[in-house]
Amino acid sequence: METMSYPCSPLIPFPTQHEESSYLLWSPQLVIPLENGNMCDADAGPSPDQQQQEDHELMDMMIQEANGLLLQDDLSSGDPFLACFDQGLATQENARLLTIQEEFMEEKSSLSDLLIAGVRAVEAQDSTSASAILSRLDGLIHGVPYRSSHHAAVSSSSDHLAYYFARGLRSRISGELTECHPAAAPPAPASRTPAYRMLQELSPFIKFAHFTANQAILEATSDDPCVHVVDLNVGEGVQWAPLMSDLARHGGKTFHLTAADDAGSDAAGAHQTTAAERWLSEFAESLGLPFQYSSLRLSSEDLHGFTASCNGGGSVIVSCDTTEKSYRSLIRLQRQLLGTVKILQPKLVILIEDELFRIDRNLAPFAEFCGELWQHFAAMLESLERCLCDGGYGAWLGLVEKETLGPSIEDAVGQYEPLTGGPCAELEGLRACEISCFNVAQGKMLAGLFSRGFGVVHEEGRLALCWNSRPLTSVSVWSPVSV
Q: Transmembrane ranges (predicted)?
């Protein structure tokens, strides 16, 4: 099934290189006060005589100003007259800059112009200009996030994306968004179950990722006595129910799931892991499938001990789904993955990733990243609108946007760090494994069950789900070089 070609979503062309900031420009409409109290438009061209007279006056003013500066250096800095004079000059300069800024903000009235200016201001750490731009954005997109059938007629998808971008930019300049206080980090899956179920049932993203990864595991372990998966982000364990069903249909070989996490896991994550263990155990019992569940700390000592205990116990597969992680957690998880693979030397490594945050991508400068982020989520939102609205579930779009897309945008904008190279720009010690023709065909068939805008791109060791030819979610398969 070929990918259909459709017009691309409206995109905001963020700059891709560090360019000189353009949000403090001299307005050509600046009104200049004359000595006699009259006002003169700067666009009005003076006569030759007036121009010559003004040139002489300007030269005299410059000479007088230079002499004044020299005189000021020679006089005492404590002179009250000079202090008042300096304060007056500073007040006039501030008023002039304020006038220029107000005129600029009147000219930059579109969302695209304001967002570009806001991103540049934040990248340049110009909090004053960034705050003024974000205030202007607030006036344009006030109340936008509360999507409903009534509000949909007066707001566009770009308005909704701009709202979350503005929140992310504001958190970035204020420093409020930190790992200890994740104000915009994606909420725990337990608090967004309805939105997650909508994504799972009415869009292909979750099904595509899980089915593609599980098929690769089944094919890699077809001759093994049991299947042992080490999951670095087990969550609620939703991915493993379909795999367990397939194993039960093909003879019922033992399935061993190890939930791996680091020492910094919080109480909510521990509770979620416990709930996953209970649910999967009950499901395995209903299938009559031999099932074992264990946990593992991602420390060097525990990993080496785990490796020794697994000798002769069947194939070990490392699985890592980073699509629901906050940005900083994602970067940390990617680094942990590499260390885990070096010690465990698994038979296969399965990665489920948002295309924008692939482990082998280099990290671009902030402005360039924001442009890519906009394009990525514009495509995501457009595809979800098509899936939910065409299926008669348009009322759920607001919930999905509020609890999944919106927090992800805010978190990425607020937390992104343009490091030199990615956490592992090159996956040292791993090689891509070819994905089977059956797995590719399964992915294309699944994409075809939903909107015609979906398609699949197959690269070496990677299968990506696309919307209008733009990859959004990918599954990649790797193996250690020594295996």
A: none
